[in-house]
Amino acid sequence: MAKAPAGQEFPRKVFGWAATDKSGILAPFHFSRRENGDEDVTVKIQYCGVCHSDLHMIKNDWGVANYPLVPGHEIVGVVTMIGCQVSEFKVGDRVGVGVIVDSCRSCESCHQDLENYCPQAVFTYNSFLLKDMSKTYGGYSDFIVVDQRFVVRFPDGLPPDAGAPLLCAGTTVYSSMKYYGVTEPGKHLGVCGLGGLGHIVVKMGKAFGLKVTVISSSPNKEAEAVERLGADSFLVSSDPAKIKAAFGTMDYIIDTVSAAHSLAPLTALLKVSGKIVILGLPDKPMELPFFPMVMGRKLIGGSNIGGMKETQEMLDFCAKHNITADIELIQMEEINTAMERLSKSDVKYRFVIDVGNSLKSGS
Amino acid sequence: MAKHEHPVAAFGWAARDSSGHLSPFNFSRRATGENDVTFKVLYCGICHSDLHNIRNEWGGSTYPMVPGYVNFELNFYNCIAALTNSNALFNVWPPNILRHEVVGVVTEVGSKVTKFKVGDKSCANDLENYCPDMIVTYNSKYNDGTTTHGGYSNIMVADEHFVVAIPDSLPLDGAAPLLCAGITVYSPLRYYGLDKPGLHVGVVGLGGLGHMAVKFAKAMGLKVTVISTSPSKKQEAIERLGADSFLDSRDQEDMQSANGTMDGIIDTVSAIHPLQPLLGLLKSNGKLVMVGAPSKPLQLPAFSLLIGRKAVGGSIIGGLKETQEMINFASEHGIVSDIEVIPMDYVNKAMERLERADVRYRFVIDIENSLKIAA
User: A37: helix, coil or strand?
Assistant: First the structure.
């Protein structure tokens, strides 16, 4: 059974699952967390979504993994302890914790409630806290201690299992749509890729009153996209004639694809002054043809998760519109199989670990 | 035959093939229609696009070509052919651009023309720049199927809507490049919100477009940093053009010292260049605006966009109303292009020098005094 390295001992014993090398195999792991400070909230974790970033991190695809690594940043649980300065939450509240657990609180981004763009943002796992440089461990564990600023109220109307992925996927999509103005009823939105992020884009797009077209390389996803998720139409990206027929028809495209791909077909689909919003993180640069950008005054912008205030706003929006992720609930010990399936995109559309019921400390 | 297509004789210089060599050419223009303005050309700027077009570097050039604009309509069809062969899709969707830096004096107006009278100084300008049915000033086709010929000629006829007035305060020769270079940088400064006093904008490339971007941005009250591969341009940029600072884009340390300091960047460079260092210069929510036209796709690292929520956008010339607004702004702030006036028969040498970027910063052909009709 793996234990945290010496020098990282804190008073409270925690149990979780961690990866210890770039094979990415997760296994039971004992570690420790800090005492609940004045501004802290302790959350007993009930559910944790499996984000594609978790897979990238455990395999060290981005070259920044710090093992042992306990992933998980789509956390829903119940408050078991609050610090004396905590006023927003009480014991027993259902809450969510997402991708960030701290930030500098003093830069322009932090002042604008955009902690996600703070250059010193601390991530829920594989990061180092600003105050004491201790390593952060994520939600594939039985509890977590978080500063109240980075905890959100989880609405009663949302199921905690299907709602867990909203803490990353949901806020990533919602924040990008608000910033780039992809919220005007009647406008036409293309969604590139139908996975964890993509299926949320369809649901939120429809909730905003947009016309939504799913763009995918897999023709067999059409029935799913249109009949079950509610997309208005479906475009097979590998069919040049169909793509050409759709040239210049979209006001926006949200690109969720993390495999390397050319932006050329997507720029063609946009109307003049159209925007492509990039949410995925391909590991190679994307090819960007200039003429169509310049000729049509098109824009390609990125967006990265969301700030705390807008994450709360997003959860309330989802509760109002009954938006949750489509999930497959798994037991903790099934996580390695789930990661393998995720690497083949074999999930509709997010795994969520039933942490509360299945994370059992062996010893 | 170009000479007899239309009733009014015209004379200019045309390229006959993709060598791009220009020589005297007799052709014809339409009679002044009721919405038309006919004018005698005084000056015509040489835009870098003219060089690309006469040498067919973008494909789609048809000869003989009297330059002045870029035709992308034919490019569109070329790209479709490429599509079926190689699965490589890209959009060269019309609108095409009409670039044209022509200044002249009105000699005749149609009966329904209200904006101009005979004797007005005017410029023939671009049609609405993002319209899919745009007709370009040269190397394009009118609705009657005849070829459009550009401003390296003695007279032009254009619909009143597409002609803008030049205030008396602007010298005509220095004003000519405003119609392409000027509007090409003015439009994105406005559209992308890079026009508020106190913002910091970077200008990549100090040529025809770049020097105009510096002048407009300073007039709008911005802090301006010129980013260039030529450290020798530093003094020029700061002391003569009024830029606030200068970065050597080949000096990594220099560039990194300015990371996260710019609200926007206007990138005028057409050569292939890396985008990542430029994206690094932007603050959060910053925008990199491309107005150059690299011939190959560039490489865009997604990570550089996501961190800091940054964007890359394009822009091409501007609409007519905006072009008039730009001319008025230039007049108010005394902005003209830095030019080298040349006679018509110097044009081939000018093109060679333009290719080497050996001009500060635009050649302007003195059509009125040097375009002599060949016997």
Answer: coil
CA distances from B211 to B200, B214, B238, B239, B373 (A): 16, 5, 11, 13, 34
Element (H, E) at A204: helix A196-207
A95 and A40 Cβ atoms separated by less than 8 Å: no
Give the residue from A295, A305, A310 with the most B CB atoms within 10 Å of its CB, the best one to mutate.
A295
- Measured in degrees and rounded to the nearest 5, phi and psi for residue B368 equal -55, -45
Continuous H helices in B258-371: 276-281, 302-306, 320-333, 347-355, 367-370
A-chain CB neighbours of B83 within 8 Å are 240, 244
Contact residues on chain B for A172, CB-CB shorter than 8 A: none
Q: What angle do CA B65, B375, B53 make, to 5 degrees?
A: 10
Task: Give the burial class of A332: count Cβ atoms within 10 A of its Cβ; 0-12 exposed, 13-18 middle, 19 or more buried.
Answer: buried
A139 with A23, same domain: the answer is yes
Contact flag B88-A264 (C-beta cutoff 8 Å): yes
- Range with the largest mean pLDDT of A201-210, B45-54, B70-79, B82-91: A201-210
Interface pTM, i.e. ipTM: 0.89
Amino acid at residue number A356: G
Residues A282, A197 share a domain: yes
* Domain hosting residue A36, numbered range: 2-168+326-358
Answer whether B93 sits within 8 Å of A264, measured CB to CB: no
Contacts of A247 in chain B (CB under 8 A): 91, 93
What radius of gyration do chain B's Cα atoms show? 20
Nearest CA in chain A to B306: A302
| Pair A77, A174 in one domain | no
Subunit contact B89:A109, Cβ cutoff 8 A: no
Q: Which residues contact B244 (CB under 8 A, 6 or more apart)?
A: B223, B224, B225, B238
CATH no. for residue A208?
Answer: 3.40.50.720
Please count the other Cβ atoms lying within 10 Å of the Cβ belonging to residue B127: 25
Phi-psi group of A248: left, alpha or beta (phi > 0 → left; psi -120 to 50 → alpha; rest → beta):
left
pLDDT tens string A132-177: 889 999 999 999 999 999 999 999 999 999 999 999 999 999 999 9
Task: Choose from B71, B75, B93 for mutation: most chain A CBs within 10 A.
Answer: B93
Share the mean pLDDT of chain A: 94
Whether A267 sits inside 8 A of B90 (CB atoms) is: yes
Nearest to B269 by CA among B277, B257, B259: B277
A77 forms beta bridges with A45, A95
Inspect the interface and report whether the beta carbons of B191 and A297 lie closer than 8 Å: yes
**Is A309 inside a domain boundary?**
no
- Rounded to whole angstroms, the Cα distance separating B104 from B44 reads 9
Q: Does B209 touch chain A (CB under 8 A)?
A: no
| Residue A105 belongs to some domain of the structure | yes
- Counting one residue from chain A and one from chain B, the pairs whose CB atoms sit within 8 A come to 151
